[in-house]
Amino acid sequence: ALNTLSLHDALPISRLSQGKARQDYDSILPTFPEGQSIPKHIWRIFITQGTKKVPLPEIAIQTEQMLRELNPEYEITVVDNKFIEPFIRENYGDIVWNYYLRIDPSYGAVRADFLRYLILYKEGGIYTDLKVSASKPFRETIKENDRLLLSHWDNLPGEEHEGWGHLEGLEAIPRGEYIMSFITAAPGHPFFRELILEVMRNIDTYNPYIHNTGFSGTLWLTGPVPYTLVAMRMQKDGRLTEESGCWREVSFAHDLGMIYTQVFLKGLSNYRKNAAPIIPVSNPIVSSLNHMYFNLLSWYRRRILKQG
Question: For the whole model, what pTM was predicted?
Answer without folding.
Answer: 0.92
